[in-house]
Amino acid sequence: xxxxxLKKKRTISRYLGLNIIMLIIxxxxxxxxxxxxxxxxxxxxxxxxxxxxxxISEKAPRGKIYDSxxxxxxxxxxxxxxxxxxxxxxxxxxxxTMDSVFKILSDNGxxxxxxxxxxxxxxxxxxxxxxxxDAEVRKSVELRFKRDRGLNENIExxxxxxxxxxxTDEEVAKVDEELxxxxxxxxxxxxxxxxxxxxLINSEPTKEEQxxxxxxxxxxxxxxxxxxxxxxxxxxxxxxxDAIKMQSFKGYRAVNISSNIKKDTAFIIYQKLNDLPGIDxxxxxxxxxxxxxxxxxxxxxxxxxxxSNKKNYELRGYDVSSDLIGVSGxxxxxxxxxxxxxGGTTVKVNSKGRVxxxxxxxxxxxxxxxxxxxDKRVQYAAQEAMKDTLERIRQEGQIGATRGAAxxxxxxxxxxxxxxxxxxxxxNLFSVPGSLTPEETQKYFSPDLDSFGKEYIAKTNAAGxxxxxxxxxxxxxxxxxxxxxxxxxxxxxxxxxxIPPGSVFKPLTSIIGLQEGVITPNEIIVDxxxxxxxxxxxxxxxxxxxxxxxxxxxxxxxxxxxxxxxxSCNYYYYEVGYRLxxxxxxxxxxxxxxxxxxxKFGLGVDPESKQNASTGLEVNENFGxxxxxxxxxxxxxxxxxxxxVDYLKTGNYNGCxxxxxxxxxxxxxxxxxxxxxxxxxxxxxxxxxxxxxxxEQRRDTDNFAKELEPDIKNIMKVSDKYKEEVKAYEVKNGxxxxxxxxxxxxxxxxxxFTIDDKTTEIISAAQIVYDSIGQSxxxxxxxxxxxxxxxxxxxxxxxxxxxxxxxxxxxxEVMQEFKPEVLDTINISPDNVQAIKEGMYGVNTDPANGxxxxxxxxxxxxxxxxxxxADFSTEGTEVGQYGFLGRQPYGNYLSFAPLxxxxxxxxxxxxDGKKGSSAATIARAxxxxxxxxxxxKMDPNYAAKSASFKxxxxxxxxxxxxxxxxxxxxxxxxQ
Length: 975
Known about the structure:
Blueprint: H1 14-39, H2 41-52, E1 53-58, E2 65-66, E3 72-84, H3 88-92, H4 94-107, E4 118-120, E5 126-128, H5 135-148, H6 151-160, H7 169-179, H8 184-194, H9 207-215, H10 218-225, H11 231-248, E6 255-261, H12 263-271, E7 279-288, H13 296-299, E8 302-304, H14 310-315, E9 324-326, H15 329-333, H16 335-338, E10 343-349, E11 355-362, E12 369-372, H17 376-395, E13 404-410, E14 416-422, H18 438-445, H19 449-460, H20 465-469, H21 506-516, E15 525-527, H22 535-538, H23 547-552, E16 557-559, H24 561-567, H25 570-583, H26 595-600, H27 629-650, E17 652-653, E18 657-658, H28 672-690, H29 701-718, H30 720-733, H31 739-763, H32 766-771, H33 782-793, E19 797-799, E20 804-808, E21 814-817, E22 822-825, H34 830-845, H35 850-856, E23 864-870, H36 881-885, E24 890-897, E25 904-910, H37 920-930, H38 932-938, H39 942-945, H40 947-954
């Protein structure tokens, strides 16, 4: 029997096991690759494409702005810009790259683009660089800045946990309240941490080091960085990091590091691009104003978009982080026409941020061109004459003469030929964002009124002191220019400055008096110095004076219309105002006898009408109002309350009603009950005054007093201050106070004050008498005043004021043309107009009118003029406007030429000029430039006889800059 041997047990080789494991790993890898490349191919391809794809935006050139002769006032030039694109390698070597870039820029005198709101001054103090002094705007900008950088997130988490729902308005307000508590210094620390600026000292930290950095506060991290770097160096890196983050909201886009760099600087950087990952040199258009300050108030300027307007512009397709917009003047008013259509290129980039492939290109398209009615030659003469005139007036002792305006308008078209607002500015300063020096930023956007005020008070001896002249805003802690003393470059004094007209209003009163038949050109009115006439209508104590009587106790004697205009006789016009009132019914409606005409001349609008309050001008403007009953009443009532508060504090009404002093002034320390009681009393008084001039006007003093008693009693009962006054009164007089008696006395005083005094004042005919010489509430812009005179001298046609002639496409096609447009017509007698012209001609030929006579007394052709010395109103000052504020009257001068067939009207004003005739030199320069050819035809040697003609016209340095000269070339910056 054969027995088979047992099978030997086989063992698995170690190599076999290793091979099996390797096969399994290989299988997993292959499976993963198949999964990625086959099943997830599209998803990962898209991610890879996105991470390596960039959109290089191409700015569209803005449309050009031309003067009336085709000279380019605003255009674009190609300049070099330095950009940074965030990519893998550029991010890795960010700090090394930035160190090199900062050094190159510094060595070549270039600035990097610094748009970060958070700044550090020379004393290492942190602050926000706001471009507004308005408290609400500052607050909005600060909140937007902090929210955009995520500083709200920790606050929201702390207050409301991980809330998923939208925050309510109350919750948002609470977060905002907490955000505003974060100081500028703490914001800096937060940004150091948010932007991982610790990488500056350790770009590749270990896990332990990273954890240590993560646990650090922003302040601790900053202190660590300060051991090697200055606070300014840290901020420089932060500026770029911040720009990258803000731009990242728009996708992968390059950020500007420096704009408008010199050609040589661009070449140096270009040579080193291989060592500067992410850096590139590009061409971009920037706004350029060939004539610098010329017509800056009319043209305006461009600037970056304020963060407070971020949402508004984003909805309109703007890139808030890089786009510029017009922020004033024509640049702003015609933003939609001037801005072009942006283009750009979608490209692929490598790890260094270099372009490797162009995927798609969208061409940009320029904006439309705007052609103005302004003549650059006349504009130059006007601006230079304004500057020289202000300097002369200051040399004569009026050191506050630092602001002024001039408007030249065609009498028969409404076209603006020149518009001056002084001080002006160079709009080129604002074309490159972040390029302003700290000093320039302060000057234009946040003036140091403390330093300015001290210097101003020292020169003027203003009795009001710093707090009186430049009071502090309790909310912001900043000083305010309440009395319009600081010269503001961005304020258009020609279109926004509301000034009292003074005697330049008298030609209007003249034409109204003539048209209404209350005077004739040759009728004599005897000036007796003090106007004490008609006490039965105007009151026994009413006695305004003619200026000549005030200054020398003399009179103008027998005066007709022409003489009244020539010598500016107030007495004559007081009588005209009175006669207009009587002729039209001597009632409430008659108080508007002048206003009804003034409105048709463009000096205000009827408050009860729906008429547009505008001259028609394209740029932003204010629109002043003439005296009229309704507007005067509404303006007067608030001042009544201030007077009443003061009256009640004295405990004495006109020496006939006595009571314990009562304080009804609003105070934040008042209890809610006391606040309500004071408000209830004031509301009843305001309501009663509001009914003056209507069928519901209160005339019953006793009944009105009874209605006030409950509110007065409530105040007395809950006011601790009143109770203290009662105690003091009892101690002083040795007798107890009866509360009911006090209530009756105070009620009587208030009722008599309201109905007997203030109601009478509101309806008094004295107001139309003051109105007749341009006083009362009259205040208009220079544009309004110029247009009123144009309407008068052209025979009664009021044209829409405009300074845009047409809009054309980039290829020259006319898109829109602006023809003269009639807004109103007034049927006035040519004979009456002629009489006024003759009277105004007499102004310029009367040696007593100083500078006006020197300018036009022997001018080659006849020029009509009217001076106006208008007081600055400062209600509430104790010492008076001149002593308290150091201010002087406005120097207004209104004129037209030639006399027989007026073509041009000019109005000039000098703030604190003191005399109206002082501004006549500006008008002369304008006429000489506008009528240059006619003057030389009349006298070929005129230039040798007129210093102003030679200086402002013949020697004008401005060369023509027509389109053929506008070569689109790269700017080689020489500065």
